[in-house]
Amino acid sequence: MIVDSFELAITTYALHVVNSPEKDKAFNMLINQQRTSSSGVYWSNIELPSNRAVFMSLNERLAPKYESELEAHAIASTSFALLTYIKRAKTSLGKPIVHWLQTRRNFIAGWCSSYDSFFALKSLVNYAIRYGDTIQQYNLRVNLSWSDDAY
Predict the structure, then answer these.
(1) Which CATH class is domain 5-150?
(2) Whole-Å CA distances, 135 to 12, 15, 139
(3) Domain segments of the chain: what residues?
(4) What is the DSSP secondary-structure string of 94-135?
(5) Could you give the percent of the chain with pLDDT greater than 70?
(6) How far apart are CA 147 and CA 151, in angstroms?
């Protein structure tokens, strides 16, 4: 039995990529290891604190995130879990995972390292491509005015 969250997430994803008969068993193990916080769903060997909300005016914002030594590990694990959910076409279950990943960004819009940032972006882009907003009709009104005297 795999106990490390990253090892389980990457193994489960690999089993789904090759369409292994063991993929469902691995997916059930992955579900059993998920953690839930106010920020969403994630996979980590330890519990990570959620970002606290602060209010500026009437708008809620997230305060700077708490640092954790295993945060990059959790981001990579959660990214592979999201890729697995995408493979399984679990749209509604992917939203809390996406939300958690988005709340873990640093102040320059990346994550902890290049490694976990790569997998986080890969999973989020794949999610957006597969399940992005399907609004195809927009109402747009543009008023233009100009004067020949300006030139």
Answers:
(1) mainly alpha
(2) 32, 33, 11
(3) 5-150
(4) HHHHHHHHHHT--TTS--SSHHHHHHHHHHHHHHHHHH----
(5) 83
(6) 8
